[in-house]
Please model this.
Amino acid sequence: MSQPAVDRALLEVATKIVATEGVEALTVKRLARETGLSRATLYRFGTSREAILDALENSGTDVGGRAGSRERILAAAKEVFGRTGFDAATIEEIAETARVGPATVYRLFGDKDGLIAEFLDQVAPRRAIRALRLHATGDLRHDLTRLAERILTWMRDEAPLSRLILIEALTAGPALARVRKSSPVRSVAVVASLLREHMAAGRVRDGDAEALARSFAGMLFAAGVLGPILHDAPMDDPALHARMVTDIFLRGVQTRRRSR
Model:
């Protein structure tokens, strides 16, 4: 659905208010007073404050980082990406779904890769993974179990998105590949860094930490994505599966001295 059209004269008045007094001064009441129209008339023609702010953004006027526009765009991106995939999605389609202009999307996210990156950062467990790494307890079993449970819970709750990412990866989608390559937070890198610390302390056998981390990620992927697909049933208990995966993994990598 496209956004309501805003009359050019009304937009000029709104632009002047924002330029001289700031976004906070822009209200429908103020516009009614400046234009000589009643608020009822403005509302009847769909002239809400949000519609005016959208129109100002689309014309290039800086109205600040409005959470409303950003959230609408990210929600629209989820809908469009789920329908078309990352590569086939267009900024124009996402903007139309979000009821903003393409210029607003470019201003807030830079380009499509920037939008995909922020979209994944919002919906994927990257922030939680980062937080777990920063607050590692020193107990490898505990830390890996927490990490596994967070990832498996996300895979269950965001099953359509996790399957979309799988499809994009299998088909070598260029957009996903570019974003993934530039991402500063990846679960494999987090697990590898944890394993290196415990290798240095003699709790984990020496080896290729990256390869071991990929093995752990593969076990999570099998439990969280492939299992539900093959059995046509969602994961029932992410915490239970997290403990199982971590236990099996640690049996293979820990030294005789119990891993902590």
About this structure: The chain has a mean pLDDT of 83. The chain has 15 helices and no strands. Residues 65-123 form a domain with the Arc Repressor Mutant, subunit A fold (CATH 1.10.10.60). The chain has three domains: 1-64, 65-123, 124-253.
